């Protein structure tokens, strides 16, 4: 089975799932094996690291942090650093996540992510968030402006370690899902992929 066909099946299976802010184990061991077997031998030059980035992203959708980390740490571009940062944020190593987001600098998906996150939060029940720190974060996201990866790390840390607010949890999960879908689409496009990998929401 070709890369595109195998990848399409995995992506359609995984990208409807909203990964946890703090996963404890992968969703499906067999899916991890299938992602690992996706062939990248046909990729050369600049396309190869993006093919690895697609696989790193799929592993994170499967909540398999170690497998994603193994790939992202060998991808020497902003997209590899981005997956690396998300992985550390999901494992609860927030200072390390920020280190990798510093290496990302301004990623091309930030602009679309800022728009999508703002539209989502504007239509949400963010006013019902009990934690004042998180409520202010959501208000800032809803106001628009540039995406702030560091503020989002802080918000996830606040939720996981302090707030445990049910409404905030759902909002953060959805924004993380938007972020991961956009980054996966970007990596796929840069790997030379054609057509839709991630179905429209």
Q: Would you write up a description of this structure?
A:
- The structure is a single chain.
- The protein is mostly helical and 201 residues long.
- It folds into two domains: 3-106 and 183-190, Serine Threonine Protein Phosphatase 5, Tetratricopeptide repeat (Alpha Horseshoe), CATH 1.25.40; 110-175, no CATH class.
- It has helices at 3-14, 29-36, 47-61, 65-72, 78-91, 94-104, 110-122, 132-142, 149-163, 166-190.
- Helix 7 (110-122) packs antiparallel against helix 10.
- It is globular.
Main pleated-sheet profile: none
Count helical runs. Answer: 10
Name of the level-1 CATH class of the largest domain: Mainly Alpha
How many domains? The number is 2
CATH overall fold name of the largest domain: Serine Threonine Protein Phosphatase 5, Tetratricopeptide repeat
Distance between the termini: 27 Å
Principal-axes geometry comes out as globular
Mean pLDDT score, rounded? 94
The oligomeric state of the chains shown is single chain
Per CATH, the architecture of the largest domain is Alpha Horseshoe
DSSP summary, beta strand count: 0
What is the percent of helical residues? Answer: 55-70%
User: Structural class from helices and strands?
Assistant: mainly alpha
Reading the helices and strands in chain order gives HHHHHHHHHH
